[in-house]
């Protein structure tokens, strides 16, 4: 089973690459944001619980998030593996994900991070903002803050996975096919 933690700053191309890799390797893409939206929209027990925290402006506790991810993994029990996108964000979450996968006889195969220069990210996001309708893609100050938050949060996880020899940084600049090729050369060696 191939289980990837896909990382990269906002605008690095995670969503695009996750779609390509999902098809190429027959993996299930689990985007934490999508899982939250689905559970909240469908008013599942976990969605209602998560919404109660979000409505108070609080972070959803790791336990609730892990339970949602567990439900997604269970829904796809026949999968050849998963691409985790947007999770983990902290060492505690990485430990929780490891335990979840271990309980299913699996593990995280690798953390693959798309590395893109900040100025390229800002331009990509401003460009995306013209068509995405997302207000957080239209304001350069907000974009730069999102990038800073990403680096502040993920530096810890980079070290976490490096200690396990599971961290792989991949150049995220170039054509979609070029980047997929770079990612594939890492995944094919796992």
TrEMBL record:
A cellular component term, taken from the record's GO annotations: cytoplasm
Record field: transmembrane: none
Catalytic activity: AMP + ATP = 2 ADP
EC number: 2.7.4.3
Entry-linked InterPro entries: Adenylat/UMP-CMP_kin (IPR000850), Adenylat_kinase_CS (IPR033690), P-loop_NTPase (IPR027417)
Enzyme class: transferase
Localization: Cytoplasm
Chief localisation class: cytoplasm
Domain of life, source organism: Bacteria
Swiss-Prot/TrEMBL domain comment: Consists of three domains, a large central CORE domain and two small peripheral domains, NMPbind and LID, which undergo movements during catalysis. The LID domain closes over the site of phosphoryl transfer upon ATP binding. Assembling and dissambling the active center during each catalytic cycle provides an effective means to prevent ATP hydrolysis.
Assembly and interaction partners: Monomer.
Protein name listed in UniProt: Adenylate kinase
Organism of provenance: Aquimarina atlantica
């Amino acid at each position: 089973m191939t289980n990837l933690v896909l990382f990269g700053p906002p605008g690095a191309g995670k969503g695009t690459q996750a779609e390509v890799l999902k098809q190429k390797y027959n993996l299930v893409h689990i985007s934490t944001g999508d899982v939250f939206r689905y559970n909240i929209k469908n008013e599942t027990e976990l969605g209602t619980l998560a919404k109660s925290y979000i409505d108070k402006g609080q972070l959803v506790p790791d336990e609730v998030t892990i339970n949602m991810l567990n439900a997604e993994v269970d829904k796809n029990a026949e999968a050849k593996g998963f691409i985790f996108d947007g999770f983990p964000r902290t060492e505690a979450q990485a430990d929780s994900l490891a335990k979840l996968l271990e309980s299913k006889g699996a593990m995280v195969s690798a953390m693959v991070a798309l590395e893109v220069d900040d100025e390229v990210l800002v331009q990509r996001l401003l460009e995306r903002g013209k068509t995405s309708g997302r207000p957080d893609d239209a304001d350069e100050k907000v974009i730069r803050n999102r990038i800073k938050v990403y680096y502040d949060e993920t530096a810890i996880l980079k070290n976490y996975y490096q200690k396990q020899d599971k961290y792989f940084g991949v150049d995220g600049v170039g054509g979609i096919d070029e980047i997929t090729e770079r990612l594939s050369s890492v995944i094919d060696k796992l």
